[in-house]
Amino acid sequence: MIFNKEMKNNKIFLVGGIIFASEIIWYLYKKVHNLWIKSRSTCKDLKTNIHESKQDISEVMFFTKESSFCRTHLTNKEICLKDTCSVQYLRKLENYINRAKESLDICMYMLTCQLLSNAIVNAHKRGVLVRIIMDRSMACNEAAQTALFYRNGITIRLEYYVGLMHHKFAIVDNDILITGSTNWTMSAFFGNFDHVIVTNQHSLVKPFIDEFDRLWKTFPNSQENIECPAEFSVK
């Protein structure tokens, strides 16, 4: 009787142990399973956020002779209600320059706009690598911002060959391309029929990166070779 009672107690203890172990295993399984589901959800959200953070840029700006009516808004800071206001376009270009964090490459036939020139200098001052390519004859124009760039230590390279360096484009952080028919001059922004296209489509940006690098290697360092009048040289 005593032996049978002990056997019965052992069976009860064994069954209880099995049930207890099963509960622990089930608890651990649910814990691991929930962590796995959560990790998959987190990874999915992370991928979604990365995809959404890469905002597509596709913008077109047209400048016309009617743009001259908006020029006063630049100085008196009036808010223009026209969607095609040249001041709004100019501010957008300034904002794109202000977005530069690592590099700013500018290849511009003529650059006289003070607003954009100041933005370029400010980019250089905050540590952005700024490189500028210009046409030699236009760089020596008395309205050009060549001296301003030189005084602030920005490297400029000029075309020294037959023909014009007639490009008009800029690349922000090797990611955003600004290009079109428009020189960065007040007459272009407020009087000419011109256009600007802004995009971060890689298939369009990459060829311009390659072209800029090719020209940068081709043209000499203008700080050493510039032949502008004394008032436009480095001071």
CATH homologous superfamily identity of the largest domain: Endonuclease Chain A
Walk across the major sheet and give the strand order. 1-7-6-5-2-3-4
CATH topology of the largest domain: Endonuclease, Chain A
Helix content: 40-55%
The topology string of helices and strands comes to: HEHHEHEHHEEEHEHH
Mean pLDDT: 81
Global outline: elongated
> Which CATH architecture of the largest domain would you pick?
2-Layer Sandwich
Termini separation (Å)? 114 Å
CATH class of the largest domain: Alpha Beta
Structural description of this entry:
By secondary structure, the chain is α/β, with parallel strands linked by helices. It has two domains: 1-47; 58-224, Endonuclease, Chain A, CATH 3.30.870.10. It is built from nine helices and seven strands. It has helices at residues 2-53, 72-76, 86-98, 114-125, 136-139, 146-151, 186-189, 202-218, 222-225, and strands at 58-63, 103-108, 129-135, 155-159, 168-172, 176-180, 194-199. A seven-stranded mixed sheet has the order 1-7-6-5-2-3-4, sandwiched between helices. α3 packs parallel to α4. It is elongated. Residues 41-53 and 231-235 have low confidence and may be disordered. Residues 161-188 form the PLD phosphodiesterase domain. Belongs to the phospholipase D family. MitoPLD/Zucchini subfamily. The chain crosses the membrane at residues 12-29. Pfam families: PLDc_2. It comes from Apis mellifera.
